[in-house]
Structures are given as C-alpha cells and as structure tokens.
Automatic annotation (TrEMBL):
InterPro entries given in the database record: ComF/GntX_DNA_util-trans, PRTase-like, PRTase_dom
Pfam families attached to this UniProt entry: Pribosyltran (PF00156)
The protein's name: Phosphoribosyltransferase domain-containing protein
Similarity-based family: Belongs to the ComF/GntX family.
Gene3D superfamilies linked: 3.40.50.2020
Domain of life: Bacteria
Renumbered residue ranges of the record's region Disordered: 133-153
Domain spans labelled Phosphoribosyltransferase: 113-215
Protein source organism: Agrococcus baldri
C-alpha cells in the first residue's frame, strides 16, 4: 500500500509538472520553485553598512537572482519564495542586537494592486510575527518612488509612517529593529527610524532581505 501511494504521488507530481511547469523564481531552473544555488545566495554572507549611524544588514545585494526572487514574490506571493527570502532575513536579523522587529508596511498602492503585503510574507517566511508601522495617508507625497531621485524620495517619505497607538505603550523605551524587504535609497527606512523614535522607541538596527548596490541607489 505504501509503495503504491509513493508511486501515485510521483505520478501526480510528474503530471502536474507537465501541465503546470515549475521554475526557480531566481534563475529559471526547472522543476524547483527556488533552487539550492539561489537559496545559497541569500545565506552566503550579509551585506553590511552604517545608515545614519545605525547598522544596516541585508541578506544579499538586490541584483541578479535575488532581485528576480523578490520580483517573483511580489508578483505571485508564493510560499516558496517567501520562505527562501525569509531565511535570508532571519540570518540578517541574527547579526543585529536582540530587539523587537518592527515591519515597514508596503505602500498602499502596492497593497491595492497585489492584494497582499510581500514584506509581511517574507517576515512570516522568517518565522516572525512582528509589530508593524502604519502608513499615514494624510502625510507625505503619494505615488510610486521608482522614478524619483534620492532627494525626492526623502521628501515623499517624510511623515508617512506612524506607530499605531495600540503598540506605543508596549514598545516605548524598548530597543527595536526596522525590518524591510529591499532598501534602495534608504528613504523609507529612515522614515521608519524617525517614526519609531517619535513614538519613544530605541532603533538599534535595520534588517532587510536585499540592499540595492549603493552606486545605483545614489543615482536615485
């Protein structure tokens, strides 16, 4: 019976691979959602820097297969990509001082378009159930950040994040780590740090899945 079940399971997987072929979201390798080589890129060693005096640790650079994996997650919200990216985020967090992780939420525009928050999916893939900042729709400048310069991103992000009132009492005075999926210009995580300090928290670091190479981030 057990042998028959294994045979049936293998047959069903083979049939499914023909009807709905699976390919790695990072490199396109067939028959696997995230291949071992792409997983290894997220755990090979973090990218580190100081951002306004705070340690920023990312699992990898936002380039090549890692960029493709992030894009695949944002497009499909698949569990395999979330787990792979979450493993990298967990390692980045482990290198920072012990603190309460606080999530940077996706933009309202992105949430409406996708119907899910990829940052939250990655956090769950890392085994986290973090507190989260909230977007303040009454502040800042709306629209996408993609076509803006660094200075424009800073102005657009200013005042757009707040810590919900229900979290202020529990987090005030405590060390916290800002958690995001991708850090590009740094405008969003800087705003997150500002919002947390305004709520009485003590940011001690920033953790991310990926960091855009600074030569690119500096150009906008």
């Amino acid at each position: 019976m057990e042998t028959g079940s294994r045979w049936l399971g293998a047959a069903l997987r083979e049939a499914a691979s023909v009807l709905w072929p699976v390919a790695c979201g990072g490199c396109g390798a067939l028959d696997v959602a995230v291949c071992p080589a792409c997983r290894a890129l997220l755990t090979a060693g973090p990218v580190r820097e100081l951002l306004d005096g705070l340690p920023l640790v990312a699992a990898a650079e936002y380039a090549g297969p890692v960029r493709a994996l992030v894009g695949a997650l944002k497009e499909h919200g698949a569990a395999a990509e979330a787990r792979a990216l979450g493993a990298g985020l967990a390692l980045a967090l482990a290198t920072l001082p012990a603190a309460e992780p606080v999530l940077v939420p996706s933009s309202g525009e992105g949430m409406r378009r996708r119907g899910f928050d990829p940052v939250a999916l990655v956090a769950r893939g890392a085994g986290l159930r973090p507190s989260a900042l909230r977007r303040d729709r009454s502040a800042g400048v709306g629209g996408s950040q993609k076509e803006r310069t660094v200075a424009e991103r800073e102005r657009a992000a200013r005042g757009t994040l707040v810590l919900p009132k229900r979290l202020r009492d529990s987090l005030a005075g405590r060390p916290v780590v800002v958690v995001d999926d991708v850090v590009t210009s740094g405008a969003t995580v800087r705003e997150a740090v500002r919002a947390l300090r305004a709520a009485g928290c003590e940011p001690v670091g920033i953790a991310a899945v990926a960091r855009t190479p600074r030569r690119i981030a500096a150009s906008g």
